[in-house]
Amino acid sequence: LATGPRQNNSIFYEIRTYDIKPSKMKEFVEMVNKYIHLRTAHSELVGFWSAELGAMNKVVHVWKYDNFAHRTAVRHALANDKDWQGKFILAALPLIEKQHNEVAYLVPWCQLGKSPKEGGVYEWVTFQMKPGGPALWGEAFRAAINAHVNTGYTKLIGVFHTEYGLLNTVHVIWWNESPDHRAAGRHRAHEDARVVAAVRDSVRFLESQQNLLLIPLQCSPLK
What we know:
Alpha-Beta Plaits, 8-stranded antiparallel barrel
C-alpha cells in the first residue's frame, strides 16, 4: 500500500467528492451529463456517481492520470478551455457547497475492474485504518477483501489507498446488481465462517468505516 510495493507505474487516481446544494442537485447532474465531454477531452474519467444512501446531495467522481506532470498539464489546459469554463464551471460553481479531493493509488494486488453489466449499483466503502500502514494491517485487510470476493455475491471494482488526503485511508468500490442483491449477499457473507474470521482479524486495525450506495450518472464510464 502507501509504504509498501505498489503498482509498477506512476498512474494515480484523483477522487473528488462534491456536496451539492439540495435544491440544485437535479440541475447539477443535468449539467454534468450535458457538458462532461468538454472535461473528458482532457483526461480519462473512471466513474461519476451520485449518492443514494449513506449521504445526500453528494457526487463522487474519479479521474485517472499518468503522473503528476500529466495532471498539472491537464489542470492548466482546463483553466484555459473557454468552453469548459464558460459552459460548465461558471454555471456549476454556485450549485456546489463543498469540494474535497484525494490522490490515491490502486493497491498492487488489485486491477481496476468493470461491472459485468449495466444497471447495477455501486458500494463505496471508506476504511480509516490505524496509523502504521500496510506493514501493520495490509495482509489482514487484503484477506478480508478476498474473503468477500470469494463469496461471489459482489464484484470488486477497485481498492485504492490515499497518497494525499487523510492517510491510512482505503477506498473499496464494489458492484452489485441491486441494493436487495447486495443485502442478501451480505447476509450470506455474515454467516460464512471464512468471512467472519477474516473480518475479525482485519477489524483490529480499523478506526472507522463509511459506506455509500452510489448510482452511476448517465455519463459515467462505470455503469
